[in-house]
Each structure stands twice: as C-alpha cells, then as structure tokens.
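User: I'm putting together notes for a lab meeting next week and I want to include a structural view of one of the chains we've been expressing. I don't have a solved structure, so I'd like a prediction I can at least talk through. The sequence is below, exactly as it appears in our construct file.
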Amino acid sequence: MITLYGWGPMFDCPSPSPYVMKTDIQLQMLGLAYNRAIADLDAVPKHKAPYVMDGGVLIEDSNFIRAHFEKKLRRNLAAGLSDEDSVTSWALERMAEDHLTTIMMMERWLKDDNFFKGPALFFSDVPEAAREGVMQEVREGIAASEQARGMGRHSEAEHMQLAEWDLQAIAIQLAGQDYLFGDTPTVADAAVSAVLISCATEYFDTPLSGLVRGHTNLVGYMDRMKARYFAENLWPVPEMA
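Assistant: Thanks for the context. Below is the predicted structure for the 241-residue chain, given as structure tokens.
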C-alpha cells in the first residue's frame, strides 16, 4: 500500500504546500493507486512533507519520491521530451521551486497579517503557553536564513520584480500551449503549476497573486491543471486544536 502524507485544501489551494501538490500530481501521472494522510512532521527524519510510505519503505522529498517510483515502475515522467526540452524542464522546476517559492513563503510567513491568517494555524497543537514563543522563534529563523542567503536583503518591490521575471519566463515557455511542452502534461507541469497555484491564491494579501493572474495564459494553465488533478478533495480533514 502506498500512502502520500501531506495536507489537503487550505488557503484556497489544493494544499498549502506546492511540494505536496507536485507529488500528488506526479503520482497521478504515474497511474499509481495510493491513499492520502495528514503528515506528522515529528514522525520522519527530515521533518518535512511530502513523504510517502511505499509498504514499509519511507521516501522523503518530492524529487526522491518521483525517482523512487520511476525506478520501481521503469517509467520516466520526462519520457518523450528532447534533450533540450529535458534541460529546460529541469530549469523551470528549479526556478519555480527554489526562487518563486521562496518569495511566496516570505510573503506568507514574514508579513504579520498573512502569517496569523495562514501559517499560524500549523502551530495549533503547540501548548498555548508556549505557542507565541515558538512561532516567533520559527519566524525569526526564517528571516535570518533568508537574510543570510541574500533574498531577505531585498525590498518587497525587488522581490516582486524578481518574481515577475520568473513568471515572464514561464508564460513565454507556455505560450499558447495547454501545457509547458505541448498538449500533454509532463514532469515540469507538476512542479510549476503547483507553485503558480500557491503564488496566485488571493487568500493572502500580496502583490504576488496579481502578478501571476496578470498573465492570462498562466491563469488558464492553472485552471486546466486543477481540473485535471484536483477536481475533488480526497484528503482527510486534519484535526486541529
């Protein structure tokens, strides 16, 4: 039995995590039958989701989950792409996940109004007496980490300029196609669409959502991916204190 661990709909998205959405899509692309369950980050070594149990085997991180099942099934989600398109595909994934997602995360976690409306919900199981201190420690850690890597040194306007350059690149690659490389979704569509859906949600107060929605082809693309892979919610409802 295969079980995907993560979270279902939150923040007007199929999942609060683009990485969980990505893996959910890729497992569907591979034609696998699997269950979905709410993640317990304290139960796994990397303390992150998504993770998958394939029988008695634990696989953590969306990239390694994909690799595990591609090897097991002797399939490749990049099959059919030219070498040039395979390189572009991987570059698009990395740009979306390592750059756009960072900007999206900072908008959610480091802006007070957005944080207390959204990510603060993840701390509901922390004892109330300690909750405020734990949340502050986590947020300060994120801010320090982004300051160290350089992203935290930019203004919000500069963040949005960086995001718009990323979005322009994705919109140009998509052009008038249904999916990034033609009429059929391929491996990069899982990661890129998941990040775009996360960035585009209007649940949070951020200019990022308007930047995504300013590209009409990206709006249609997100709608197609959601209709294809998230037409219904199959996640259990998480228990929150």
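A couple of points you could mention at the meeting. The beta strands are 2-6, 35-38, 51-54, 57-60. The chain has two domains: 2-73, 83-229.

User: Perfect, that's what I needed.
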